[in-house]
Write a structure and sequence with these properties.
- The complex is a heterodimer.
- Chain A is mainly alpha-helical.
- Chain A has 15 helices and two strands.
- A two-stranded antiparallel ribbon of chain A has the order 1-2.
- In chain A, a hairpin with a 2-residue loop joins strand 1 and strand 2.
- In chain A, helix 6 packs antiparallel against helix 12, helix 13 crosses helix 14 and helix 13 (about 245-255) runs parallel beside helix 15 (about 295-325).
- Chain A is globular, with a radius of gyration of 20 Å.
- By secondary structure, chain B is of the alpha/beta class.
- Chain B has helices at about 45-50, 75-80, 95-100, 115-130, 145-160, 175-190, 200-205, 230-235, 300-305, 330-335, 345, 355-360, 375-385, 405-415, 435-450, 460-465, 490-500, and strands at about 5-15, 15-25, 30-35, 60-65, 65, 80-85, 165, 190-195, 210-215, 215-225, 265-270, 275-285, 285-290, 315-320, 320-325, 335-340, 365-370, 370, 420-425, 455, 470-475, 480-485.
- In chain B, the strands form five sheets. Chain B has a six-stranded mixed β-sheet with strand order 6-7-8-3-9-10, with helices on both faces.
- In chain B, helix 13 crosses helix 14 and helix 14 packs parallel to helix 15.
- The longest helix of chain B is centred in the C-terminal third of the chain and has 16 residues, at about 435-450.
- The chains are: A mainly alpha, B alpha/beta.
- The interface of A and B includes residues 191, 194, 201, 207 and 321 of A.
Chain lengths: ~325, ~525
């Protein structure tokens, strides 16, 4: 059966739905916008606005695969963005310093989440909601209204071109490859899938469940810090308020990318492409002249469609194994 | 030479239940030892202690002469104890190769996993256990249950344990001869095997000696060649010796019941999931016991009758009328009430008051305009509370403040309040103390003499023989036998439960392992 084999393909490779959709949407977008979108500058514009969301979605993926949730992403982004905009970093050296600082801040938030969830056995949603509120509170303390300024070395350095290639493309490719390798080619990454599929079986297979889960939150925290760094580059300013729509879109990107919120299945590539797809939809709808308030409708429908296709695949698989 | 395993005076209590007490036995190098016992005799507690999943309260274990106190599964594996679990501990959406290589996946200089090496090793491992028809790159979830079980065993074997624990390994295995070969090879290498089974034939084939557990104590360690099946059964029986059963109004002449022949529930050719086809009936005021070893499909039967599991074929009649048990709500409306064994998880609403827990089954009866008044509620439920002997002072207490026995009473009161005619009770005395058991027995008997029909499953055979009017025996997802009241002796029942599989030793059971124990 063609239908079932196509679904099998999708269920085995969860990111294929979002990749297929991205290609289709990109063609539509290119047709509507002309050849401009395929130039380096056009690509750079397209990616610059979605790269921080892509990295944020990737950060969530590590935790979601274990079967948990990490809401602190929004708080970490607000806090790191605020720090960059008020700390007065300067020049290339300042950009590197800032990168280190956001990683450390993200790591601290992630470690707190990890200790409480993995070792304290507390619910991940509650814990990360708490740290989200705390971190954005600290951000508000540092900067009580949107403002401050992001050093030019970050704002322009990351949004420009390196020769003919947009810097955003380089960052995105290198980051996605590194995160995908971490998830799929290390003992740590495979341990995350194991925990998400069956905690007891993971333990029986010799996985150090607590330590692995702790590192999932730690990794998510560091990557969330990177996301805050990229937000700063995109906006060029500081905003201490956490952005709930950013958080929800990041979760939507994870779902569209084929990662199961039940844990155990998922890819970083899917989340990154999912984030890109959300941005691409906005731009395409704008390009073809659809009023902007329809965007949310399309994005929501897309997310449900992606989840539906994903679950159809596993449903078919279950049906087959029940028959055999 | 030292014994591989030396257990002495092991004890473990879970709350009021003494799961193990003074358990001692040894296993010599190259020996396969059978561990026998009824459900709940303490076999699985033994397995859990050996794997570090449960800490014993007292007693010592020595492994190859060294003190052995595993802190967890990986600790146990490092010390040389590996287990093939009955509930399987494989990761479904990872490849067979990764499952075999966990947790120490081979890596290269960059700490990246070498999947080619993982697959190569897996293929070699499978081949060394004479498995050639499984592709190590495929996902575990694509395997049949029998192959999953083989993989679970291979994984335990491939760790080269000094002690291999096999927990009911043949429940889903189609190729038992293959397992025999592996165990014999292991014995030849001087390793030890602890073989937990309920199949006496397999125990005899593989082991010289058997240790029999009863009520958490060692009833005896016997030479299998010199012990007959019935002698073994006698050793196994008698789990609840300390419990007295209230006298039942004469079983054979139920004078108190009007129209004793009225069929309340009759089931013909019922199929649900792997269970069936099964046919039986339940008369008014009758208690029918369900005797079965763990995981033989009894849970599916109860779930099907409660409207939880889908019935795929057959006919269910209530009071002679054909019915469709589409959902728990429909089953309840038709007068079937289900009392699950996990009172906390499936039955009662903790955090609500006792009276609310009782009245919730028929909440429409206690209120006006959608509001529930305390006085009306108490008035309405007082009848059923009396019937189950639930004191009225408990009505205004949160149900979690009640003792286990009173909780069970509240649960049964609820079913009465819903005008149930037929009660499905699944192991109602699991994990309750002796006094509570007494209370539950009298509630059951009282309900039956008031005309309630009861289908009762219990892991304690003595409860079945003492309470039931007759018993049906389930094995391998089918009703294989029916014992009338006259022949309800524990020995008889246990023999029938075991004999059942004599003719069907290897053709098994996709649905036999509904129970997924999450205590790992």
């Amino acid at each position: 059966m063609v239908g079932s084999s196509a679904l099998t393909l999708y269920s085995r490779s969860p990111s294929s739905v979002s990749i297929t959709l991205y290609i289709v949407m990109f063609v539509v977008y290119a047709l509507a916008q002309g050849h401009f979108v395929t130039t380096p500058y056009g690509l750079s514009v397209l990616l610059n606005n979605s790269i921080s969301l892509a990295v944020g979605a990737a950060s969530l993926t590590f935790v979601v695969i274990t079967g948990g949730f990490d809401l602190s992403l929004a708080g970490t982004v607000a806090l790191t963005n605020t720090i960059i905009s008020v700390a007065g970093f300067n020049g290339v050296g300042g950009a590197i310093e800032a990168l280190l600082v956001v990683c450390v801040v993200g790591a601290i938030v992630g470690a707190v989440n990890g200790i409480l969830v993995a070792y304290g056995r507390l619910q991940s949603i509650a814990v990360t909601l708490g740290t989200m509120i705390m971190t954005s509170g600290i951000a508000l303390f540092m900067l009580n209204a949107p403002g401050g300024s992001v050093p030019d070395s970050i704002a322009y350095g990351l949004t420009g071109l390196l020769g003919p290639v947009p810097v955003a493309v380089i960052i995105l490719v290198v980051f996605t490859a590194a995160a995908a390798v971490l998830l799929n080619y290390t003992r740590f990454g495979i341990g995350l899938f194991a925990i998400g599929q069956d905690r007891a079986a993971a333990r029986a297979s010799g996985v150090n469940v607590e330590w692995t889960e702790f590192r999932a939150y730690l990794t998510a925290g560091i990557v969330a810090g990177l996301s805050g760094y990229l937000v700063s580059a995109e906006t060029g300013t500081g905003d201490p308020r956490f952005d709930a729509s950013f958080l929800l879109l990041a979760f939507a990107a994870v779902a569209i990318g084929g990662t199961s919120f039940r844990g155990g299945r998922g890819t970083v590539v899917g989340s990154v492409v999912g984030a890109g797809l959300l941005e691409l939809i906005q731009k395409t709808l704008f390009a073809v002249g659809v009023a902007s308030f329809f965007t949310g409708m399309f994005e929501g429908a897309l997310m449900i469609l992606a989840v539906l296709v994903g679950s159809l695949g596993s449903l078919m698989a279950a049906r087959r194994s029940a028959v055999s | 030479m030292d014994e591989v395993l030396h257990i002495s005076n092991l004890a473990k209590a879970f709350g009021a239940t003494q799961a193990l007490q003074g358990v001692s036995f040894e296993i010599a190098p190259g020996e396969a030892r059978a561990l026998l016992g009824e459900n709940g005799a303490g076999k699985s507690t033994c397995v859990k202690i050996l794997n570090g999943l449960v800490r014993p309260d007292s007693g010592t274990i020595r492994l190859s002469g060294r003190d052995y106190r595993p802190a967890g599964l990986s600790d146990a594996q490092k010390a040389g104890v590996s287990t093939a679990f009955q509930e399987l501990s494989l990761l479904p959406d990872l490849s067979i190769a990764i499952n075999l290589a966990m947790p120490d996946l081979p890596t290269n200089g960059l700490n990246l996993v070498r999947f080619d090496e993982v697959r190569r090793r897996a293929a070699a491992t499978l081949a060394s256990y004479q498995i050639f028809d499984i592709d190590p790159a495929s996902l575990v979830s694509s395997l049949t249950l029998s192959d999953k079980q083989r993989l679970e065993i291979i994984r335990a074997l491939s760790r080269k344990p000094t002690l291999l624990v096999l927990d009911e390994p043949t429940a889903a295995l189609t190729d038992v001869a293959w397992l025999y070969d592996q165990i014999r090879a292991l014995k030849a290498e001087g390793r030890a095997v602890l073989f937990i089974t309920h199949r006496l034939k397999e125990a005899r084939d593989l082991c010289e000696c058997a240790t029999v557990l009863r009520n958490g104590e060692v009833a005896g360690t016997v030479d299998l060649a010199g012990t007959s099946d019935s002698e073994l059964f006698r050793l196994m029986i008698g789990r609840s010796m300390g419990t007295a059963f209230p006298d039942r109004p004469d079983k054979t002449a139920p004078a108190a019941r009007d129209k004793p022949e009225e069929l309340v529930l009759s089931v013909e050719g019922l199929k649900s999931g792997a269970f069936g086809p099964a046919s039986f009936s339940l008369r008014r005021g009758e208690i029918v016991g369900v005797a079965a070893l763990e995981g033989q499909g009894q849970r599916i039967l109860f779930n099907a009758l409660a409207g939880i599991a889908r019935i795929t074929a057959g006919q269910v009649r209530i009071g002679g009328k054909p019915v469709k048990l589409r959902s728990p709500a429909v089953a309840k409306q038709l007068g079937i009430s289900f009392v699950p064994e996990e009172r906390k998880e499936e039955g009662l609403f903790f955090g609500l008051l006792t009276r609310a827990n009782v009245s919730i089954s028929n909440i429409g009866r206690v209120g006006r305009f959608g509001l529930v008044g305390r006085k009306t509620e108490i008035k309405q439920i007082s009848g059923v509370s009396e019937a189950v002997d639930l004191a009225s002072r408990y009505h205004d207490l949160p149900v979690d403040a009640l003792s286990g026995g009173n909780q069970q009473k509240a649960l049964i009161a609820r079913t009465l309040f819903a005008n149930a005619r037929c009660l499905l009770m699944f192991d109602p005395t699991r994990g309750v103390d002796v006094g509570t058991k007494q209370a539950i027995y009298s509630v059951i008997q009282r309900a039956a003499s008031d005309g309630m029909s009861i289908l009762l499953y219990s892991t304690e055979l003595r409860e079945l023989t003492a309470l039931s009017d007759r018993c049906i025996v389930i094995y391998g997802n089918r009703i294989v036998d029916e014992c009338p009241a006259e022949s309800l002796k524990e020995e008889e029942l246990l023999e029938r439960m075991h004999d059942a599989h004599a003719g069907r030793a290897s053709k098994e059971l996709e649905g036999g392992r509904e129970q997924r124990v999450n205590s790992l």
